[in-house]
Amino acid sequence: MKKLILSAAIALGSLSIYASTPATPEQAKMTVSIQAEYTEVSADAVPAAVKTALQTAYPGAKLDKAFVNEKKEYKLEISVGDQKATVYSDVNGNWLKI
What is the pLDDT of residues 5-54, one digit of tens each? Predict the structure, then answer.
């Protein structure tokens, strides 16, 4: 019985190794291209409307990093206490993705 449980654990463990790698190089390139559309900006470059919306929605949130794309949409990496999150906002402080 112990051998059966041990062999099942080894088989499942080896399958999980393959699940974490991209299937093709094209999939890995897609991930990079999605991230490349945002460029990092300083916290001072973030509009006041976005900062106000952030403090209203997440009181006490700390802005760790800010990114902007061509459409003036902001990707904000924030931390509240020991939790981290990424939120998206337009230039007017309207939330796109939370």
Answer: 656 666 666 655 555 555 565 555 554 444 458 999 999 999 999 999 99
58 within 8 A of 74, measured Cβ to Cβ: no
Q: How many angstroms separate the CA atoms of 84 and 79, rounded?
A: 4
Over residues 78-95, mean pLDDT: 93
CB distance 82 to 69 below 8 Å: no
Q: What is the DSSP string of the chain?
A: -HHHHHHHHHHHHHHHHHHTS-SSHHHHHHHHHHHHT-EEE-GGGS-HHHHHHHHHHSTT-EEEEEEE-TT--EEEEEEETTEEEEEEE-TTS-EEE-
Largest CA distance in the chain: 64
In the block, residue with structure tokens 């402080």: 93
Q: Model's pTM, two decimal places? A: 0.61
